[in-house]
Records
---
Amino acid sequence: MKRLLGYLLLLGWSALLVPHAAAQSRRKGSAEASMFRFSQPLAAGQYSFEPTGLFWFPQPPETQIKPEAFQPDAYFDQKAQPVKLKAQPVRYGAYLFTNKQEYLYALVSGKAGWLRAPVPVPEALKAQYRTLISQQRLRSAETRLKLGSEYGYVQITPFNDADYVLIRNGFDNDLVLHLPTRRITWQSGGRYEGAEINFATDQLECHGDLMGGRFTFTRQGQLVPDKPTPAASMSAEEKLFARMMSSPQAQKHIIDSLRRNYKPSAAELMGQALETGKLARVDSLLKRGFGVDSAVYIKGRKLGPLSHALVFDNVPLVALLLKRGASATKVNRYDIARHPPICFAKSPAALELLFAHGANLQLISYTDYYNRRRYPTEFLGEKAELRPVLLRHAPDSLFKQFDFYDTMLYRYIWEGDTVAIQHLLDRGASLVKPLRVGLKYPFAEAERKPPLYQAGRVSTAMFLLRHGARLDNPFHLPLNPEEYVLRFESLPFLNYAEKRLGVKLTTPNNPTFAVLKDTVMMQALMQRGVSINSVDSYGNTALIYAKQWDQNVPLEKFLLRHGADKAIVNKRGGSYLIGRERPYGR
């Protein structure tokens, strides 16, 4: 009984599948049949026929035959099968020419394939078609078989309008020809591939290069625009986005509509109020429960409202937030560098407000890559208008920490402000940079060299030396005190360094002498035993620099008058007579 039931079920399913398969076969058959639109009478006899696809004219694999031995007509005879036909018309849809034979793509006994038979085309046109064979590619894209031009073929597929034909004389060289005028209306040109005719619409369809998209052209060569379908229509959100990106005016309009449609959060409202400086709006949000120390995201920074107000330097807003209970010392947990609000102050008034509400200048609880000890003065010390406020509120104990006042000290030294430096010294600051074990030196020169070596003026350097700065450098990278003294090219400073600091010049070869430009300083050094032909680490003398680098004629004459040697050659083969370096020879 179970076996009988299974047999009946199988029979039922087969009955359902047969109509579906038959329908598919009919659709496929109708699509193939639509191509065979033309009729050609044939005489009774035996013909060669190879059932295959339209684009698969027989070609041998590269491993089976040498390219120079390939004959398309002979190979067709090997692959084709003989068929006997009665004297009746045969339906065809395309034709093909070799140098010697011609073929129809015909429907024979219900099968589609290539049939060797006469093509109903005038002889003059056949000759013109065969001239295109010489344009055949030498390498087939399908078989990679190297074909000579004499072994090619050209394939022609007429449109429904027989005045137009699609010509394939290579895998990437298709063209549409208007026969009455012999004018090419469309050509692949390497931009399109896989061209074929849609016989239902009588239009050309193809892919872009490397299968990039699908395109449709009329037989006159005009691109047919895609028709929007219900599935391809944009949604309301997509249309909204498209309008938003069209212009700034549309963008503002759409953003306004989005704000109406999507209710912003309290943090977004607070951010807008802080950025625009609307005190009443900020006060209203705080009264309605917004946390005065909550994080707010503005322009890529997530800080507390007080820190944002300090960034915008809105002093009334700072006063309002402090009045509403904002902490002047609390660090926002989203700030990875752990900056307290005081680090963002930009004006003396804002800084005074913070100090009045408990802000301090103590060490920041954050260790960076360089293991520095960071204080708020690192962010405030370079602002000249803030330094008096910092000095007034900073306790004396902090001036025992070099990292606390170093930013202000270096700025004062660069500016040559000896009065401000004296204020730091009066508070207990030192001009000797201490050694920090484990400190990774950053690239900034101010972080590597002691304060004295930041001085750019003789007066500032002498002031620092008189107040405890050290010319030697026992704690940091090795520096050359002699080079530092000579770089100012100041004879009084040299006399001071020799008498008070014990500086002794290197003689007779002094590398620093080569880069000097002051003749008075040079004479003083020569009187102390320094050679006029001293060379630096590159082998250059003062004479080579004066001639080849600086073109300093007075200095050049001075050096020659005092016996400078013209024949000295530097490490690159250059000299006073040759140039900076020896020219490259062939």
Note: The first strand starts at residue 38 and ends at 42.
---
Amino acid sequence: MAATPERGPLGADPPAGAASRPERGGSPASTPSTGTADPAESAASAADPMAITESERAVPEHALDPPFALVYDVVRRTAREREAGREEMRKRLESTHERYTGLAADAAVALHELRGCLDGEPAPAVLASIARRFATALDRAGVRFDDPVGEAYAAVGRRVDVAHAPDSGDEAAMIVARTLRPGVLLDDGEVIRRAQVVLGFVPTPAEREAAPGRTDDGEPPAAPRPEPSNDPNSEGGSTR
């Protein structure tokens, strides 16, 4: 009977040739690296600290945002820019509207005063033509007048400003005796300026007859008009 070889202790060193023998079903064991770096890689790393090599990778200083955060930031920035553009356009439209309404109100007051000067007087044809052109231009621009002269105050009280009214009397019997400044409004109903009026009462027939200096028609006599003069220094004369 052959003798079996004795087994060595568990912690004994393997034989000298054991490291080079392949394991069962595997490849030969690789030799450990000595840690010597490639001179070319070392030179490249020294020249560019951010260069990526096989042994290292650049790490950003801050953590990268996830994709949904980037998309949200883009959408929010776009919404802010759009809102800023809308606000700028809104301011421009308001400024243009203010200039338009201010010009319309001033032109309406000027036309009202011009009509007051021409009313009941033999006006030159040029002034009458200017008044008609003013009225046509304002009408085409969508500007309307509110001249409530002769109307009952109870019907127009909400849209007029009273400059003067009788101290006593029934307010329901008051009428608009005179329009100092006409009201101005647009076609869409926007009120640019309220009318400014003077209130009074409708004179009774007895008051008309008792009023001094009135004719049978209830109107005061017209003042005599001076004869036209060619002297520019005389009152009522024409100048060039």
Note: The chain has a mean pLDDT of 72.
---
Amino acid sequence: MIALLNKYVGQNSSYYSHTKPWHIKPSVFTYEIQKEFPGRDPLQIIADGLFHEVFTVVEIFLVLSRGIYSTRSESAFIDVYQAFQLSGSVYKINSSFEIELQIEEESAKQIESIKPILAPYPEFSERFFQAVGNLVGRRAKPEDVVKDVFVASEGYLKTVTATSRFGDAVKKLSKEGLINKEQKKVLEALHEFRSDADGAGHAGNSSTPNEESTLWFLDTMIAQLRMVNKAVSRS
């Protein structure tokens, strides 16, 4: 990525005659980056920064590249796009030059399917879909997304079972035959993933979730909520 940036960030030759510059001026690039990351060198952020810092630098680069000569601007976008594709990244660049998480078509359908289930519960629905948006748009850490998805889902389960705790909700669903043993185990595993001791909610023994494990958590929770909703609707 450093080589790619160096290809487009540089001094413009005095004999260059086009209206738009050939390069992004280094001083302009550094200034815009340091508005986000005061005192830090853009290339150093690319070399050893946190993933969200690197992506912010790339997004700023893409915005600035719109101001250079047309074919160069197009080339910059293509180069970054291909770099993401070739690396097998779970991220993509959208038409607004923003880097966002790629959601598989089937996952997108599953997310959409949960809307009518949560719609009667605005508080839970808002928190759930805000978390999804934060995951896709990189506006929150994966562990915070897990927390918010869980809290919204927990709220739904406690409401439909008239209980006050997640564990009690699961026990009641199981006791009334609305979920089977395997579903109960899955719900308990989701709780454990989020739990203080072993999950993402606080510092624990397990590793911090990444985007892929957070997507797994989201997909699995949606599947369970759909099955619970179907069972409760029949009872």
Note: The CA atoms of residues 10 and 25 lie 5 Å apart.
